[in-house]
Structure formats: structure tokens, C-alpha cells
Design goal:
two-stranded antiparallel ribbon; 19 helices; globular
């Protein structure tokens, strides 16, 4: 799966002539609203919703896990995954807008299922993608996220899981009542604030650890390509481990190629597919190239600063220890970041699941799905979820396959649309 996803990232980067060079144009466009073109929400609201679903535990805990398993070099491989993944996220959004449709309610619907049906003429793959997405949403976007919040609340504030579950369930239900406009409106206010707070916290920790910043960068770069035998291992084992875990965490974090983000990109008000493609591609930039990189630097500088205390730590424990460079405020900021990131992920993925169900059943399936979704939030808060994690990973892979097929076979359409519209997107 890692080879396939990263391979598609590289293929599309070459096919589109390094579309990443327009990333700052995409950032500018994300803050501009269009009065022309069909759509339900603004560019910024669409981007915020996608970021809400994307930025989560992978950016914080996942990066620390990659470092603990693959060494400092995993940070560079994670970052490179984000750079190349920009091309895939761009392509997904272009196809989503190109093949989107207007529903009976007058709203826009799109995503890989419509690209597969209308672009590749494969209803079978479209149905399979929708089934896998509707199921995967309960794992990656719901129960495991709710479980992360309840565990954090228990460990940090000694709040029982059932209380966290009730509060979280009510909050999610309140936002979901209003549909995509309510979700997008909430995320437009919520996501920038939580991102600024977390990025600010990372920068504060790096200022405290500033004397270790250059050594950390040197360690990240050198160990990413270290082919020497380490600890009696085979030559090249270091670079293989760094690449494996860095790429894995990067792919999990930014979701490029998974097929989720283009579902909300299709709802954006835009005059052409390329414009929204450029905006959507910035989600991978912010998620992995910025947030994951900062987290990685925080972790590696902390390890270099105090290697004895950090020895043997991994995952959330390593991240927490890294933020303790700033007493009291550091761990508090980390906890708030995790809570907000995870909650926003539940909201963003609820929309993805709903659109998949709507494709399969029409509008009649949306309300029952919402009830199941809200119920799963509470269940995830109080359950032990190793099996759910495993099923989520499987479902993620299954939904990615049809989407990657569409991206490969419709890459010519993406290239054609890019050639037609890229000059006008300023």
C-alpha cells in the first residue's frame, strides 16, 4: 500500500509538471471567495472542513511514533510524502469538481465515486468505493478518534469515559444537525484557531530548544539516508526503517490518495476545477509539510536535549515528554491540541460518510446514518479499540484502491484541465 500510494504521488508529480510550484498561489486563492460558479460553501470553508478531517492524532502522536520506530530520518521521509502528496490531493479535487453533480436538494455532490462512474464508466468501482468509505469513516473518523479523546480526558483530568462520551456525543449531534453548511461554518472558525495555537506551541518549544535545532536538522537529514549497519543490523536497514515509518505516518496524516478530501472539495463554490484543486492541495501542505515537520523538530530536539529521559519512549508518551520543555503550558497546549484536532476529525469524516451513503441509497439513508454516527461516538468513547484500529486500516486501504485507479487512468483529464485553466487561476 505504501509503495502504491507513494508511487502515485510521484507519478502525478511528474505527469503534472511539478504542480507543487503553484502551492503559494493556492494559499492565496483559499482566502478569496468567488461570486461566480456553482457550489454550496466557499473555498476557505471547504479547505477548513478537509483540514478538520485530516489534522488529528497522526500529526502529533503519529510523527512521534515514526521517530521512535524509524529514527530522526523518518521526519524527512514524512515531509517528502507531504511534498509529493500535494500533486495527488490536487488531482483528487480537480476530478471531484469536474465530475460533480447537483442533487435533488440543490446541493453539490462529488468525489471519487462520481469520477469512477462518469469518468471511468465503472459503476461497480464507484459503489465499492462508497461502501468502503461509509464503513471506514466509523473507524478512522469516528470511534478511534472518540476513544483518543476519552483516554486523554481520563489520563489528564481523571474524567470518566462515559461522561466524555455523553458530552462528545451531544456536541457532535448539535453540529451535524445543520449539515455541510453547519459543519463548514464551525470548521472555518475552529480549524484556523486550533492550528495557530498548536503551531505557536511548537515554535515556542523550538525557541526553548533553539541550541539543539541545527543538530536536530542534521540528524534528520543524515539518518534519512544512512546506509551504514547500525547495532549489528544489515547495511541499509536504517534508511529502510526511516523511509517505511516516515512514509507510513505521512500518508496516514495527510490522506492524499485516500479519496476522502475530494468529497468536500466538490461542495466548494468555484468557477473551474483547477482553482479548487489548487486550494485543496494546500491542505497537504499545511498538514504534513508544516504541522508534521514542526512536530518532528520538537520531538528530535527534545531527544537530543535529553537522550537519557527520552530513551525507550514512543507515541503519545514521547510527544508529551517533548512538550514538557515548557513546564505546565507545554503539556496543556498539547492536550488542548489533541482534543480539538480529534473532535474536528469526527465532524469532517461525518460528511464524507454521509456523502458515500447518499450515493448508495439517496437521501433516505442520511438520517439513519447520522443516528449510527452519533451512537458510534459514544461507543468509541467507552470501548477498547484494537480490533477497530485493524479494521480501520483495512477499510482505508480498500477505499484507496478504487480512488488510485481513477487517479491513474484519469490523469490525462487532470493534465488537460490544468492546461486549460491554470493561467486564469490567480
Amino acid at each position: 500500500m505504501l509503495v502504491l500510494l507513494f508511487g502515485v504521488h510521484i507519478f502525478l508529480t511528474v505527469r503534472l509538471g511539478f504542480i507543487q510550484r503553484y502551492i503559494f498561489r493556492g494559499i492565496r486563492l483559499s482566502f478569496r471567495s468567488e461570486e461566480t460558479g456553482k457550489g454550496d460553501i466557499s473555498h476557505f470553508a471547504s479547505l477548513s472542513t478537509a483540514l478538520a478531517a485530516t489534522i488529528g492524532t497522526g500529526n502529533i502522536v503519529g510523527v512521534a511514533t515514526a521517530v521512535s520506530l524509524g529514527g530522526p530520518g523518518a521526519v524527512l521521509w514524512c515531509w517528502m510524502t507531504g511534498v509529493f502528496g500535494i500533486a495527488t490531493k490536487y488531482s483528487e479535487a480537480v476530478l471531484a469538481v469536474k465530475y460533480r453533480v447537483q442533487t435533488d436538494r440543490g446541493t453539490m455532490a462529488g468525489g471519487p465515486m462520481y469520477a469512477l462512474e462518469k469518468g471511468m464508466k465503472s459503476k461497480t468501482l464507484a459503489v465499492l468505493f462508497s461502501i468502503f468509505t461509509a464503513c471506514a469513516a466509523f473507524g478512522i473518523g469516528n470511534m478511534v478518534q472518540a476513544n483518543a479523546i476519552s483516554n486523554l480526558a481520563m489520563e489528564t483530568f481523571s474524567i470518566p469515559s462515559w461522561i466524555t462520551g455523553i458530552v462528545l456525543t451531544l456536541l457532535v449531534a448539535a453540529v451535524l444537525i445543520g449539515g455541510i453548511r453547519s459543519i463548514a461554518g464551525f470548521c472555518s472558525l475552529f480549524v484556523p484557531l486550533m492550528a495557530i495555537l498548536y503551531i505557536g506551541g511548537c515554535i515556542a518549544v523550538l525557541i526553548v530548544n533553539s541550541s539543539y535545532l541545527i543538530p536536530a536538522i542534521e540528524a534528520i537529514v543524515s539518518s534519512a539516508f544512512n546506509i551504514e549497519a547500525v547495532g549489528g543490523g544489515a547495511a541499509g536497514a536504517g534508511v529502510i526503517a526511516a523511509a517505511r515509518y516516515g512514509i507510513a505516518r505521512g500518508l496516514f496524516s495527510n490522506e492524499s490518495g485516500l479519496g476522502s478530501a475530494p468529497i468536500v472539495a466538490a461542495a466548494a463554490q468555484t468557477s473551474n476545477p483547477v482553482r479548487q484543486g489548487l486550494v485543496s492541495s494546500t491542505a497537504t501542505f499545511w498538514d504534513t509539510v508544516v504541522v508534521c515537520a514542526l512536530t518532528g523538530l520538537v520531538v528530535v530536539t527534545a531527544i537530543i536535549r535529553d537522550p537519557v529521559s527520552m530513551n525507550g519512549l514512543g507515541g503519545a508518551v514521547l510527544t508529551k515528554a517533548s512538550f514538557e520543555s515548557i513546564p505546565i503550558a507545554g503539556p496543556l497546549l498539547l492536550n488542548v491540541g489533541l482534543l480539538t484536532f480529534v473532535f474536528s476529525t469526527i465532524l469532517g469524516w461525518s460528511y464524507y460518510g454521509e456523502r458515500a451513503v447518499e450515493y448508495l441509497t439517496g437521501q433516505r439513508g442520511i438520517l439513519p446514518y447520522r443516528f449510527l454516527w452519533v451512537g458510534a461516538v459514544f461507543a468509541g468513547s467507552v470501548m477498547s479499540l484494537p480490533l477497530v484500529w485493524d479494521l480501520a486500516d483495512v477499510m482505508n486501504a480498500l477505499m484507496a484502491f478504487p480512488n488510485l485507479i481513477a487517479l491513474i487512468f484519469l490523469s490525462g483529464v487532470v493534465a488537460s484541465e490544468t492546461g486549460k485553466h491554470i493561467r486564469s487561476c490567480k
